[in-house]
Amino acid sequence: MADIARKQIVLGVTGGIAAYKAAEVTRELLRHGIDVQVVMTEAARGLVTPATFQALSGKPVFTDMWDPRVPDNMGHIELSRGKDAIIVAPASADFIAKLANGLADDLLSTLCLARECPLIVAPAMNRQMWDNPATRRNIERLLRDGVAILGPASGDQACGEFGMGRMLEAQAIAPAITTFFAPKLLRGVRVLITAGPTFEPIDTVRGITNRSSGKMGYAIARAALDAGAKVTLISGPVSLAAPAGAETTRVETTAQMFEAVKRNASRADIYIGVAAVADYRVDNPRRHKIKKTDRNQLSLRLVPNPDILAWMAARPRPPLCVGFAAESRNVDAHADEKRRRKKVHLMVANLAQEAIGADDNEVTLLDNRGKHRLERAPKDVVARQLIAHIAKLYGSRTKRKP
Ligand code: PMT
After folding, report:
1. What angle do CA 200, 265, 346 make, to 5 degrees?
2. 366 C-alpha vs ligand 1 centroid, how far in Å?
3. Ligand 1 centroid to 278 CA: how many Å?
4. How far is the CA of 319 from the centre of ligand 1 (A)?
5. How large is the average pLDDT for residues 39-67?
C-alpha cells in the first residue's frame, strides 16, 4: 500500500515567534505516521529549544553545518538524502529571501539548496513584512522555482497588529502535507459518501438519533479528495466543518438523505455508506411539541426507513458499493451477513461501542476475496488505508490503472 506513513521529511524551523507552533506541527506530522527530522536555524534556537523538538520527534535535532554526528561532516547533503520533502515552518521573511536568492550560509539554507526533494514553505511574519514588495517578489520567485507555499493566514499577530502573515495552524499544515504526499489513486473518480447520523423527529423539538459524530465519514471524504477523487458528501447533523473541495449537502432525516443520494446516484462511480442511518422513523411526527399529560405512558409508532445502501446496490448499473457495519458483538460474522444480504462489494466492519464518536478506529474489510484487518489508528489513517483498498477493487473492476 503506497502509504504516507512511510514518508520521511526534514522540518526546518526558522526564527519567528511562530517557532513554538512548529512543535505542534511536529506532533501532527508524527500523528499521521510521518517521520520527522528537525533542523533549526540559530534564530529559531533563541525562541524554542532543540530539546523540545528532540523530545517530540525522538531524534537529535541538528542546527550546525559542522555537527560531528553527521557522517563525513556532510550535513548539508546527508540530512536531506532519501527524504520525501523539506518543510520550513515557520519560514521567516529573512529565510524566504535567502531561499529566493539561493543563499546557503547555515545548515538549513544549505540543505534546501542541496536538496533533491520537494520544498514546502509556511511563511510567518508581520503583515507589513508580508506586504513588502521585496517579500512579494521573493514569494513569486519561489513559486516559479516550484516551491509549494502554505499560507500565510490572516489574524492577530504577535506584534499586536492584525493582518496577513500568521503561520497556518498545525491542524491545517499537516493535512496539506498529507495531501501533497497522497498517491492519486482515484484521480477523477466520482465518489459519493454518506456520513454522520440521521435524525428522525418525534415532534417539533424532539427526535431519535444516534451517537455518530461523522468523524469516520468526513475522514474518508478527505482521504478520497487527497487521492484525487471528486467527492460528494451527504451529511447528517454533525458539528464538523465541510471538507474543503467536497460538494457537501447537509440533511437531517433518512428520507432527506435518501433523496440526496438518489439525486447523485447516476453520477457516482463509487458509493460509500458510512452514515449510521436510522432503521426506523416515527410514524406521523407531531407538528407541535407534545405536551406532558397525566398519562404515564406515551407510545411511539415506528415504521421502517428505506435501506439506502441496498437500493444503491440493486440499481441496474450500480457503482462500486461500500457499506459499513457497526456491531456490538460477532462483528465480522454479522457484517459479512449484511454484505451478502445487501449485495455490496465491500463491507467495513467495526465494533460499535469503540468506533462511534471516537477519534480512532479498528476495522475489518470483508469482500469476496476474504478478510483484511486494519489496525487501530486515527480515523484519518484508517480512511487512507481504506481508500487504497477501495481503489484496488475499483481498479480491478474497471481494469483502470491507478
Ligand atoms: O461517525 P463516527 O462517530 O465517526 O462513527 C462511525 C460509525 C461507527 C458510525 C461508522 O464507522 C459505521 O460503522 N457506520 C455504519 C453504522 C451502522 O451500523 O450501519 P448499519 O449496520 O445500520 O447499516 C449497514 C450499512 O447500511 C451502512 O453502510 C449504512 O449506511 C447502510 N444503511 C443502513 C440502514 C438504512 N436504512 N440505510 C442504509 O443505507
Report:
1. 85
2. 15
3. 9
4. 18
5. 93
Residue ID of nearest Cα to ligand 1 atom 33: 277
What span, in angstroms and rounded, lies between the C-alpha atoms of 336 and 312?
18
Atom from ligand 1 closest to the CA of residue 335: 21
Report pLDDT digits (tens) over 148-164: 999 898 887 777 778 88
| Rounded Cα gap, residues 84 and 8, in angstroms | 5
Cβ–ligand 1 contact at 325 (below 6 Å): yes
Question: Which atom belonging to ligand 1 lies closest to the Cα atom of 361?
Answer: 11
Q: Where are the domains of the chain?
A: 8-181, 190-283+297-400
Q: What gap in Å lies between CA 227 and CA 347, rounded to an integer?
A: 20
SS3 breakdown of the chain: % helix, strand, coil, rounded to 5? 35, 25, 40
- Residue 71 has a pLDDT of 66
Q: What size, in residues, is the chain?
A: 402
- Dist. CA 401 → ligand 1 center (Å): 30
Per DSSP bridges, beta strands 270-273 and 190-195 are parallel
The domains spanning 8-181 and 190-283+297-400 adopt the same CATH topology = yes
Q: Are 395 and 401 in contact (CB under 8 A)?
A: yes
Q: Is 234 in the pocket of ligand 1 (CB under 6 A)?
A: no
Question: Tens digit of pLDDT for each residue in 203-245?
Answer: 999 999 999 999 999 999 999 998 999 999 999 999 998 988 8
User: Is the minimum distance from the CB of 364 to ligand 1 under 6 angstroms?
Assistant: no
Which DSSP helix (H) or strand (E) runs through 24?
Answer: helix 21-31
Does the C-beta of 377 come closer than 6 Å to ligand 1? no
Helices (H), ranges, 343-402? 352-355, 379-398
- Which residues are catalytically annotated? 159
Is residue 382 lining ligand 1, measured as CB closer than 6 Å?
no
Fold of 190-283+297-400: Rossmann fold (3.40.50)
SS3 state at 32: coil
Q: Is 313 in the pocket of ligand 1 (CB under 6 A)?
A: no
Ligand 1 neighbourhood includes 236 CB (under 6 angstroms): no
Superfamily of domain 8-181: Flavin prenyltransferase-like (3.40.50.1950)
Contact yes or no for 374/362 (Cβ under 8 A): yes
Residue linked to cell 504577535: 158
Provide the edge-to-edge strand list for the sheet that holds 35-40: 35-40, 8-13, 85-91, 119-123, 148-149
Alpha-carbon distance of 360 to 312, in angstroms, equals 28
Ligand 1: atom nearest CA of 379 is: 4
